[in-house]
Amino acid sequence: MSKRCYYEVLGCSKDASAEELRRAYKKEALKHHPDRNQGNPRAEQTFKEVNEAYQVLSDEQKRRIYDQFGFAGLEGAASGGPGDMGDVFSHMQDLFAEMFSGGPFGFGGNRAPRRGGDLRVQQRLSLRDAAFGCKREVVVHAPSRCDDCSGSGAAAGSKPEACSACRGTGQVSTARGFVMFTAPCARCQGRGQVIRNVCKSCKGEGVIAKPRKVTVNFPAGIDSGQRLRVQGQGMPGPGNVPPGDLYVEVDVEEDSRFERDGTDLVTRVNVGFVDAALGAEVRVPSIGPETENGEEPTLTVSIPAGTQSGAVFTLKGQGIPRLDGRGRGCLIVVVQVQVPTALTSRARELLTMLDEELRLGAEDAEGVSRRRVAASSK
Ligand SMILES: [Zn+2]
Ligand SMILES: [Zn+2]
């Protein structure tokens, strides 16, 4: 059987960019993944081809050799060979970690997984906790490794034994004519092991359903939709396989005082029309850090005389800290000038007088004599 060209396998042109190759690989790998095509040996074959193609084309040096010399150029160059499924799966896990999470045995089928499945939980944080970072105990409702049998499923003093039907491989092969068919072993359900003396605590499962707490450090500047990976806190793997990872997705609560835009915060502040006209010191809410006495922190902004509604003042370094620790964004203060509504008759009188005064002042500015206007209006 002649080998298909790597570019053809991924459905890419020869001048495809690294990103195009990555996307094509992801698409093809998902399509032919054995978990989605159980009992279809053709899909597994294609899946291997796809992985091999990507392993070569994603490596700049190997790709150059392949472009120049074809398959012959690569022979003997790769140690171990690109067809090794074990490597393929560890490679896959990085790329699709969350897509195939959930099951305690990670990848399905009849081969032993390298580690347990990944888990995903959501954690809500207040805007301030997200801004300045915090430590939280996240409760994970998922099976944990059984302590009584260390996850083996076998009662104390005993061990799981290699399955005699499949000699511990988890697979049995049967010949039909010239073709060999391989299927998961029925006696051990493909685990390769049988437990004679079952652990009473976990009934031989090796895992127990009990919520557990995981302490997670949320870094300053984290935002909604961002994910933290806590290594080794996912599902326990069967036997001695290491556990998967825990992904904690952050959901930042709304704060009525602020709108967040990346590392910038926008706050709206009401200013009386007299203050806006005369200029004033205005207190605006601040994200913090929190004050020692537990009061909400504020900042003072000087509003110059003649400030209009909608005017914007930018306070540098008063926004959200950047995730990389390099300073903070801005606090953007938007002024909303308040017009008085409940007027006493005296206030109304004063406002009318003020209006006349302002009108005269405006005419003055246009060069009209104030005295002449006053005289002619009598
Ligand atoms: Zn077996
Ligand atoms: Zn147990």
TrEMBL record:
It comes from the Bacteria. CXXCXGXG motif repeats lie at residues 146-153, 163-170, 185-192, 199-206. PROSITE patterns: DNAJ_1, DNAJ_2, ZF_CR. Keywords: Chaperone, Cytoplasm, DNA replication, Metal-binding, Repeat, Stress response, Zinc, Zinc-finger. It holds the Pfam family DnaJ_CXXCXGXG. Zn(2+) 1 binds at C146, C149, C199, C202. Binds 2 Zn(2+) ions per monomer. PANTHER family: CHAPERONE PROTEIN DNAJ A6, CHLOROPLASTIC, DNAJ HOMOLOG 1, MITOCHONDRIAL-RELATED. HAMAP family: DnaJ. Belongs to the DnaJ family. This is Chaperone protein DnaJ. It comes from Pendulispora brunnea.
